[in-house]
Design brief:
The chain is about 15% helix and about 35% strand. It has about 160 residues and is α+β, with helices and mostly antiparallel strands.
Amino acid sequence: MRDWEKTVPASERWGIEMIGVPQGAPVELHLRLESVMEGVLVTGEVDAPVTGQCARCLEPVEDTLHLDVQELFAYEGSTTEATSEEDEVRRIDGERLDLAPLVRDAVVLALPLSPTCTPDCSGLCVDCGLRLDDLPADHTHEVLDPRWAGLADRFTPSKEN
């Protein structure tokens, strides 16, 4: 068994369109590698900074993901390797474990599809496009049916009278 703690930069941007871990961002790994019958069991925690924009109001979003990971890396010729499909189990390459795909997959799967700046973000006003949380509670727009717009102009008192 070996405890392994390291901070590594993200090799590329991990994420989806609205949010992700920027390239070069420091990703903290707190892992335990244990030798088991079928291979090496990797368990631990991953902390990764994420940036993006709110899906409702388009304000910037910054947060840190705290993830628990657990994955078996199978020895070559083990029963697990023989009874699993190629993409079902991770393999040990010689005497090396490639942890990058494990960390990337865990981070990307944990990202929200529609991130929000706050859990109760109200979004944008559909008429003026301003952020609703920054506007007064009585914010409204007079909506005039375009079919009556000509009559409304005709019967609105002018400033000359």
